[in-house]
Amino acid sequence: MDSCISLKHVNHFFGKKQILSDICLEVPYGCIYGLLGPSGGGKTTMVKIMAGILAPTTGEAFLMSKKMPERRIMGQIGYMTQGDALYPALSSEENLRFFGALYGMGRRELDKRIPEVMDLVDLAGDREKQVKNFSGGMKRRLSLAAALLHRPGVLILDEPTVGIDPLLKKTIWEQLRRISAGGTTIVITTHVMDETQNCHRLAMLREGTIISDGTPEDLVRRSGTASVEEAFLYYEREGERL
């Protein structure tokens, strides 16, 4: 396959409620692909299917040419959830060593890698601090460090910058662009319109359907609007007319 991630006519239900409806999506290798939409639009369910955490009710999901879910490829994915899956009684470094061990990283490799990711998320001075004493923003940053720790080929980030101050957010996006330029494929969910300028491509979601997709520039041009926010409202209205 030419795409790193491919969703083919994916539908997903929780009980009788349909969360995703006929999702078709192609994410190129080395791309920063944004999933833009309001809460409840299906973004989290979609990335869980990409990561192999959920199997679609119908349709197919592929990652690196492997049909998901596929346990053997999970080690090549860095996944940051919306909620912070951290151990509050452990220090930030102890958390990273635990997650590193799950990824099969050795002590010497972790000794080198942990300071790198802690510097990236501006937590270098908090390595010995227990996570229970972290603010919400600090927990988000540590979760991002854990997702980056093993240098995954695919990085899936669910609302990663919520609660992070604007200056650090800018630094994190600079690093994500650098990581992408090195060949890592990044999928990121967001409802923050100004973050979309950092994405190579976007899919706009509303109530479990993709209402439009393309580069941010193409989405604005095709809608005849002046911004991604205005373009989203345009495609949302067009969808309501159908």
How would you sum up this structure, described in words?
The protein has seven helices and ten strands. Helix 3 (107-120) crosses helix 4 (136-148) and helix 6 (216-223) packs across helix 7. Strand 4 (58-63) and strand 5 form a beta hairpin. The chain has a six-stranded mixed sheet, with helices on both faces. Helices cover 35% and strands 26% of the residues. It has 242 residues and is an alpha/beta fold.
What is the secondary structure topology, with strand pairs?
Layout: E1 3-14, E2 17-28, E3 32-36, H1 43-51, E4 58-63, E5 66-67, E6 77-80, H2 92-102, H3 107-120, H4 136-148, E7 154-158, H5 166-181, E8 185-190, E9 201-206, E10 209-214, H6 216-223, H7 228-241
Parallel strand pairs: 3-8, 3-9, 6-7, 7-8
Antiparallel strand pairs: 1-2, 1-4, 4-5, 9-10
Helix pairs in contact: 3-4, 6-7
Q: Order of helices and strands, N to C? A: EEEHEEEHHHEHEEEHH
The gross shape turns out to be globular
Spatial order of the strands forming the largest sheet: 6-7-8-3-9-10
Strand content: 25-35%
Discrete helix count: 7
Helical residues, percent: 25-40%
Q: Determine the N-to-C terminus distance.
A: 32 Å
Major sheet attributes: 6 strands, mixed
Class by SSE composition: alpha/beta
